[in-house]
Amino acid sequence: MNPQGFCTGELSSSALGVAVAVAALHFHDAKAHQSEIQKGLIWLQANVNSDGSFGDTPQSPGNVSTSLLAYAASNLYASSNESTTHLQTKIAAYLASQNIDVHSGQVAKVILNHYQRDYTFSVPILTMCGLCGVPGGEAFRYIPQLPFELALLPRKFYRLLNLSVVSYAIPALIAVGIVVFKRKPSSAVGRLIRKQSIKPALALLHRLMPGSGGFLEAIPLTAFVALSLIEAGYGDLQVVENGIQFLKRTQRADGSWPIDVNLSTWVTTLSVKALRGKTDEVLTPEMQTRLADHLKGLQNRKVHPFNGSAAGGWGWTSHSGSVPDGDDTPGAILALLRLRPKEEVKEAVLAGCGWLLKLQNSDGGFPTFSKGWGKLPFDQSCADLTGHNLLAFSVCLDAYGGELSPKAVRAYREASLRMLNYLRRHQRQDGSWLPLWFGNQHVADHTNPVYGTAKVLTYLNDVLLHGWFNSSFREQLNDLTEAGERFLINVQNADGSWGGGKAIPGTIEETALAASALMHKKHDKARQAAFQWLDQTYRWHGMKASPIGLYFASLWYDEKLYPLTSYLEALSRALELTSSLGMIDKCSPSVV
Fold it and tell me: Roughly how many angstroms between the first and final C-alpha of the chain, as a whole number?
């Protein structure tokens, strides 16, 4: 908890963020930013994997995308710096081992094949490579043209268009689309339309930029925009200057950058959630009031300039680039109701629920940012967000059901039933659910059914404590939870831990989340084995964070507060269970 009274957390450093930020600073003014650039290159040299690759975090196995960007950034200085030349040679050897020739157009083919229809990252990656001279002067022949002119249409049409980027990537669509247009031949008609679209598109980009200078507070996105505009001939724009200052301000002392400034709202609400019934023992009334006031102060009060989102939602951080979303909003609602009497937070909570009602998709599930965007994975409904929202609506019905109008109660109930039906349809045959923004690097397809199932089960188990629904609703909840519990029991490792799936090495985060989901006496054996593993792991290794988070377009990260909040929530729930069973005196010392 910081001096302002809320949690900040700490995201892992990102080689991808470092590479793109170094390139942006180089193209802006290599001499003026020499210190920041050199520190970034030194960090890359110190954190390259033994095989010459880079992963998304220092703990991650290498991947082609991040390694290619690090190669491109080093290409800017390889001819003038011996250590950078050595780094580039190592990266080239890794890429060659992956059958990638950095001197041919094959680079584009590999990246485009990897990301398929989603150009959110593939086109910016290839654009930076081209601007850095990789694979050479013909690089832009192979880069798809992003239709930046479509961003000028009213927002309500975006979801109907083939933008090939996710809803939150409009700044990249514009800036990268403009530089590709400038560098790549196209038809006369296409060139005329796009040439006339540049000025209004740049004006739109200016309106989208937050006061901090960082689009979505994201280092890679802001850097991609800045370097693209600079190399398109628009380096004197205020958007570029603000973006460059954002990059300089967010560089860490060791020379690295994270992928985003922080996830302060998210980790703050996770921390409150983890305390559960111990809130009053841990947080003084003054601390609780300060936390609640902080969260209420972050609620979006007007139409958001970035994506036109209505008032009422919460984003993931306290910084100005944050955008309201479908996971932080239920998190804030639940935290407020935990921190303060329901009468004090009623206005904020019901405004948040009203915002969520408008976000719910026609399939009954919840997306992250925008309703109706279903063409690309990170715009679609997902199980973990839907479960989170079902709990938020259930808590609100329990707290305010007698005070709401019949119309409002009906809307909450109908929305909840649609969420339940979504979860029923998307529970897989083995009883699991998949999350959207979390994965596991060791699972073959990088999904994380343990995380998704544990989160949904925990939400549903809490919903079962409420009394607003009928017996049919309860029976369906019980059926879903029983199947989910069977899945978790079946994939627990022999040592008591859980990883992302069957026989995947355990982490504190996944083991603690699974333990939280299995708070029934019938799961005593599995839960006790989990706590023994957690206790031993904590004693030997401390609160070691694992790369389970997925940032925009599948970029891995870890967050230092994730293992702590997950473990603490599991302990809080275990203490509640043992107390309710009259067994607190029999609880093992490690669990207590």
Answer: 23
| H-run or E-run covering 57 | none
What is the average pLDDT score of the chain?
94
Provide long-range contacts, Cβ within 8 A and 24+ apart, for 73-79.
Answer: 73/18, 73/19, 73/20, 73/22, 73/23, 73/26, 73/40, 73/41, 73/44, 73/132, 74/41, 74/44, 75/132, 75/133, 75/134, 76/22, 76/23, 76/26, 76/132, 76/133, 77/37, 77/41
Enumerate residues 6+ apart whose C-beta is below 8 A from 79: 85
pLDDT at 289 over 90: yes
Q: Look up the pTM and report it.
A: 0.95
pLDDT at 592: 36
* CB half-sphere exposure, 534, CA atoms < 13 A: 30
User: Residue 504: helix, strand or coil by DSSP?
Assistant: coil
CATH class entry, domain 262-426: mainly alpha
Short-list 242, 246, 241, CA closest to 261: 246
Please give the radius of gyration of the chain, using alpha carbons only, rounded to the nearest integer.
24
CA–CA distance, 32 with 504 (Å, rounded to integer): 47
Query: In sequence order, what are the residues at sequence separation of 6 or more whose Cβ sits closer than 8 angstroms to the Cβ of residue 346?
Result: 400, 403
H helix or E strand, kind and range, residue 556: strand 555-557
Taking alpha carbons only, the member of 79, 69, 75, 154 closest to residue 107 is: 69
| d(C-alpha 461, C-alpha 520), whole Å | 10
Backbone angles phi, psi at 260, to 5 degrees: -145, 155
CATH class of the domain at 427-592? mainly alpha
Map out the domains of the chain as residue ranges: 15-250, 262-426, 427-592
Length of the chain: 592
Tell me, yes or no, if the two domains 15-250 and 427-592 fold the same way.
Answer: yes
DSSP string, 85-126: HHHHHHHHHHHHHTT--TTSTHHHHHHHHHHTT-HHHHHHHH
With a cut of 60, say whether residue 587 has pLDDT above it: no
**What is the rounded CA–CA span in Å between residue 498 and residue 570?**
14
Cβ count near 199 (within 10 Å): 9
* pLDDT tens, position by position, 356-401: 999 999 999 999 999 999 888 889 999 999 999 999 999 999 999 9
15-250 CATH choice from 3.40.50.1000, 2.60.40.10, 1.50.10.20, 1.10.1060.10:
1.50.10.20
